Amino acid sequence: MTHALPADLSCPRITTRKEGGLSLSRIVAGMWRMVEWNMTVEQRVAFIERCIDLGVTSFDHADIYGNYGVEGLFGEALRAQPSLRERIEIVSKCGIKLLSNKRPDHAIQHYDTTRAHIVASAEESLRQLHTDRLDLLLIHRPDPLMDFDEIAEAFAHLQQSGKVRHVGVSNFSRHQFESLNRRIPLATNQVEFSPLHVAPMFDETFDGLQDLGIAPMIWSPLAGGRLFSANDANVERLRLVIKEIADRLQKPFASVVFAWIMQLPSRPLPLTGSGRIEAIAVAVAGTTFQLSRTDWFAILRAARGHEVA
Hints:
The structure is a single chain. The chain has helices at about 35, 40-55, 65-70, 70-80, 115-130, 150-160, 175-180, 205-210, 225-230, 235-250, 255-260, 275-285, 295-305, and strands at about 15, 25, 30, 60, 90-95, 95, 110, 135-140, 165-170, 190, 215-220, 270. The chain is an alpha/beta fold. The strands form 3 sheets. It has an 8-stranded parallel beta barrel, surrounded by 4 helices. It has a two-stranded antiparallel ribbon with strand order 1-2. It is globular. It starts with 12 loop residues before the first strand and ends in a 5-residue tail after the last helix.
């Protein structure tokens, strides 16, 4: 069953950190699949404008997305319509080196969180995105060879030069996050979370961020589409629980999932992954209501397959 969306949808904003944080839209538009959308430059401009109309002004990138191609596509849109840049926030990530025909010097896929690589990656992202600064730069994955002091030094250099406004990490454990945060203030930790991946609720990731007053960003909130399509019996049971709540509340299925995520007290900011503006609007609709505690725990129970103890 489908449900009509409110006509006056407008995505709220949130500050990622209580002290000196970055203001982002509560729903962040994830760009990692943009190459697959096969949009013309004009269509990319129109997509960004329609996101802004919904109040979704934050756009998530990484240097490696689309085989090092997504930032360039987005940058073409900003070149075509320069006025867009002052209306949006750009997030990017660095620290992974992919095997790629665009990077022939990469002999093996690996992490690189050296100062030289972080700075060079950020500067290349600026060139590709056709902008003079990133609003937020994240380390993409924890690196077994990462030196917290060296990362902090690279981040400080980029901030002092005006090339990066805020810094953060992605996929870090609580201890890794706090170790780097002691050296330089971090704006967020972008982690995987959905009803099919609830680990951050129980491994201290969200607890630690809530304690520091820092909002996490969430990738794959719909489990990469598996909430809609997986044939696994456990997923099917979860799907039925969410559908019953959505139908009773007369809300779209995905809106209920986004609302469930955003109800956590750590104030998560979920990313979308779609080039369809209708899907962005469904995510934004999840900001307009809260679930009862009974419905929230019904989803958690179905997600985990057992009652709370």
